[in-house]
Specification:
CATH class of the largest domain: Alpha Beta
Helix content: 25-40%
Shape: globular
Strand order of the largest sheet: 8-7-6-9-10-15-14
Number of strands: 15
Distance between the termini: 46 Å
Number of domains: 2
Number of helices: 12
CATH superfamily of the largest domain: Vaccinia Virus protein VP39
Oligomer: single chain
């Protein structure tokens, strides 16, 4: 039997971590929770203990390792403060041990990927429809509200007017832009992190696009103090229906592809509206769906292969994007520092369009029309079934 461990956290991320620990040879002794209502219950056939019981078991070496199965930064902060009051536990050690376990499991999963892209659009669309309101609510709770964990970042975005004012790592894209360049920030979230002013003072045409734009614009009306720039509605998987072919000089995508119904189709649609020679920059937390235990909209992993290829994958499908798009795009994936913590590991890729192409070279356009109709019907059903209370209930 392997070393005994306890998983701190009982939600989806904690349960996934317990499975990973078992796969890596650990003996999961229990879950830990500071919520009294959860303690003394059973989750996945493991008991739930209190932090005080964990400390006693750890001090007598009944438990060798503690893994942190909590991803929400506010909750992590609470646990960190609690651990300071509970010697001999050390939060930094807990985090490091968790990182090592998660990264080892991640590499093992990547070794066994089957590169077949067989995505059921309707199945993935249903998941998206079931979870998109959770994304809206998290933007209100964590960003827009004054006590939100990321409220300072929200205020910074509202005030920013410079293209490099927040994301200074976009220098290469910035160097290709001129006055009047058309730049799209797709999947921008509540407020784009980019401004329209270049370092030389010239202005670009910045278009912030998100499928949840109608919600974000309402939220910003309430909390943005009149400073928020309008966000335009657009669906990643059908962006070519919203924009003209060859209409963008640059496209920016930050932590958004993992939310898509079909990220590979989304990349193709983006390339279609990009000018030849135009650049698309992708920046994502590595394997976000695995990190978030496939919770909410996090359904895909943006990752890099052994030869620094861009790959997308989840439990059922995987595609080597660099290989599949080599006819129409040149893709450079920047080497990732794997010595950094799991939460900080980032995949950055630059995709340069080499030539024009037709979307029917890659997928069935008749099927696409049916997919769009299915999604629109689902959205209308959601509007009919759900009350618009996301602003007043939080």
């Amino acid at each position: 039997m392997g070393k005994k461990c306890v998983i701190w956290g009982t939600r989806a991320a904690g349960r996934q971590l317990a499975r990973q620990a078992v796969d890596m040879g650990y003996h999961v002794f229990a879950f830990c929770s500071s919520t009294k209502e959860t303690q003394k219950k059973q989750i996945d056939n493991y008991p739930v203990i209190s932090p005080e019981v964990l400390v006693r078991l750890y001090s007598i070496k009944e438990v060798a390792t503690v893994f942190l199965g909590v991803k929400n930064p506010s909750y992590r902060k609470e646990i960190e403060e609690l651990v300071k009051q509970l010697p001999p536990l050390d939060f930094s050690v807990i985090s490091q041990e968790t990182d090592l376990l998660e990264l080892e499991c991640l590499e093992r999963k990547k070794e066994h990927l089957s590169y077949q892209w067989d995505v059921s659009f309707e199945e993935q669309a249903k998941l998206w429809l079931q979870n998109f309101m959770g994304e809206v609510e998290s933007w209100v709770r964590d960003d827009a509200l004054p006590d939100g964990f990321y409220h300072d970042v929200y205020l910074q975005r509202l005030e920013n007017t410079d293209f490099l004012g927040i994301d200074t790592s976009c220098e290469k894209v910035c160097g290709k832009l001129r006055a009047g360049s058309a730049v799209m920030d797709i999947g921008c979230g509540l407020v784009s992190m980019y401004g329209s002013r270049l370092p030389n003072g010239e202005e670009i045409k910045l278009l912030a696009v998100d499928p949840l734009a109608p919600f974000y614009n309402r939220i910003n009306q309430v909390y943005g103090g009149g400073k928020a720039r309008k966000c335009k509605f657009g669906l990643f998987e059908f962006i070519a229906n919203f924009c003209e072919e060859n209409s963008c000089d640059a496209i920016l995508v930050n932590n958004a592809l993992d939310h898509c119904i079909d990220p590979f189709k989304s990349i193709l649609e983006c390339l279609y509206i990009l000018k030849s020679g135009g650049i698309m920059r992708l920046k994502h937390r590595r394997a976000e769906a695995e990190y978030e235990a496939y919770h909410g909209l996090h359904k895909w992993n943006i990752d890099c292969g052994n030869q620094n290829e861009l790959i997308f994958w989840n439990q059922r499908s995987a595609v080597n994007v660099s290989k599949e798009l080599e006819r129409v795009a040149e893709i450079r994936v920047f080497p990732m520092d794997k010595s950094t913590s799991r939460v900080s590991q980032t995949v950055i890729a630059e995709v340069v369009k080499k030539r024009d192409f037709q979307l029917n070279e890659f997928f069935d356009m008749k099927k696409e029309r049916r997919q769009l109709a299915f999604l629109v019907e689902g959205l209308m059903r959601c509007l009919a079934e759900r009350s618009q209370t996301y602003l007043s209930e939080l």
